Amino acid sequence: MLAGYSEDEKQSLRELAILFLHHKIFEGANGFVVTQAMTLIIALQASIPILKLGLEGYQGWVSVIVYPAGFAPKRVIVDEFGVQHSVQSNLSGEAWQRGPVVLAWNDTEHAGIIDGHNLVIHEFAHKLDMQTGDANGFPPLHTGMSSSAWFEAFSKGFKDFEHRCSRGKHIGINCYAAASPAEYFAVLSEVFFERPDIILQHYPKVYQQLRQYYRQDPLTRLSKRNLHARNI
Ligand SMILES: [Zn+2]
Questions:
Q1: Ligand 1: distance of its center to the CA of 144 in Å?
Q2: How far is the CA of 217 from the centre of ligand 1 (A)?
């Protein structure tokens, strides 16, 4: 996964992961024992989105809860008519505003495979998004970035993606991204770090915004990664 990263970037990731381990608390759920190796794998992957943003992006909460496998919490929701419903859905990860990040270890373990899907990056992208309140696909932008450019790129991209998914046209991005603008941001963040070429091909304006937001250009790593793979 780190094949395309420079030595300086790897060193920064290492330092961020150490800081992450120092500031966050890992808890196993359902009696699951979280080993040091597991905390390292999670901390390192969680450090990728904040490589150029710093640990400040993950301020205001401390817990990472790890389930052995997918979990199905029972929740009570109240609908628009005030009627309570008990719902239970299968999840492999969750991010709570000002609360914990919840991960299923079996999906986290495989997150290092480069397939455009990465549960850890997904949940921590939600955390970045939640810095300004509810997750809505609009994280706090940096000075010099344009809110209208972000909004235009993401709203057009989201509509186009919804349309493609409803017609069954798959382009290598999980259709879960069509669930909401918040999921579009989180899923595209996964793809941005693992398969940036897919976003650049289909949503170049979204790619430019993500590049400015994360202050990283994973496409440059892709060519190094391919070179590395050929040399193995
Ligand atoms: Zn999500």
A1: 27
A2: 23
The yes-or-no verdict on residue 94 having pLDDT over 90 is no
Looking at residue 134, its amino acid is D
Measured in angstroms, how far is the CA atom of residue 142 from the centroid of ligand 1? 23
Please choose, from the candidates 124, 149, 138, the residue with its C-alpha nearest in 3D space to the C-alpha of residue 24: 124
Task: Please write the tens of the pLDDT for every residue from 168-187.
Answer: 988 999 999 999 999 999 99
Q: How far is the CA of 191 from the centre of ligand 1 (A)?
A: 13
> What domains does the chain contain, in order, with CATH numbers?
7-231 (3.40.390.10)
**176 alpha carbon – ligand 1 mean position (Å):** 8
CA of 7 to the centre of ligand 1 (A): 31
Tokens encoding 161: 């993606």
Distances (CA, A) of 181 to 117, 184, 210: 18, 5, 14
Contact 129, 138 (CB under 8 A): yes
pTM, to two decimals? 0.91
**Residues 53-60: contacts with CB within 8 Å, 24+ apart?**
53/128, 53/214, 53/215, 54/16, 55/16, 55/19, 55/20, 55/23, 57/127, 57/128, 57/131, 58/20, 58/23, 58/24, 58/124, 58/127, 58/128, 59/131, 60/98, 60/131
